[in-house]
Amino acid sequence: MKPRIETLPEKKMIGKRTVLSLSNNKTGELWKNFMSRRKEIQNTAGREFYSVNLYGQLYFDKFNPDTEFEKWAAVEVTGFDALPAGMETLILPEGLYAVFTHQGSSEDSKTFHYIFESWLPNSEYQLDDRPHFEILGDKYKNNDPNSEEEIWIPVKQKRKQ
Question: What is the CATH number of the domain that holds 36?
């Protein structure tokens, strides 16, 4: 499973967010709330949905399933002029990403294990402190073994020793 390396241009997002941890996972509740209101968002720049995670610099230093992070359910927009009540804006900054295709249920974490336990430590890249996200496009089917999504991991070149 070899990723493609891409430079993501800055993207404007509108969506809903929550703070959660892997042990106190509120993802279903977040997406249910967002999807019931997604048609209120104007100026969408595509049909894909974005599941964005903001981990903070120390999140991966000592992994703990109780450590909280911010999760967004969002769509890309062309501008912020029409912000629905109760929704917020987020900017994904430009940067380098390793992009993996995950096939299978979103409950199956095999792709993430591969990325963080095998690919990343053996690559010429290290994590960068920017948002991580998944793009849920036309092939995404929630909790379906035939589902497909893209996993975008923020990276930068490892420093030469």
Answer: 3.20.80.10
